[in-house]
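step: validate -> pass
step: tokenize input -> pass
step: predict -> running
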Amino acid sequence: MINTRAFTLKVHSKTEPEFIDITSDVADYIKQSGINNGFCLVFSRHTTAAVTIQENEPLLLQDLCDLLERFSPKKASYKHNDFSVRTVHMHEDECPNGHSHCAHLLLSTSESIPIIDGKIALGQWQRIFLVELDSGFSKNGQEREVLVQIIGD
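step: predict -> pass
step: emit ->
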């Protein structure tokens, strides 16, 4: 019989780009689910925060941050940031974040990971990250939501 369990993980980000390792939280949800074999979907509910699998090695993470900056520099011109003409999806405290949306294009909104014998089947160095891409938040950071859906038997 196929079972499904869903969890919402709240992640607090402080800066951007920021790679936040959420692997332990996802593994805990898998354990709580009681599902032994299946898969786990990890999904970001944001267009400026991505989910990716990568190695948690500090110099590599800095390389990845540098790559994101080269791909979508903060100081470049983005039509999305032109509030004098933009009329769609605006709110009172809108901030210029075109670069964040463009950087997201390199990454993904979700990852699917197998579950085997009740454990997440990641490779030796693989970790699951929420990647914060948006600088338009308060000095205290912001809270992001990651949905974790576990499906299997």
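step: describe -> The chain has a mean pLDDT of 95.
step: cleanup -> pass
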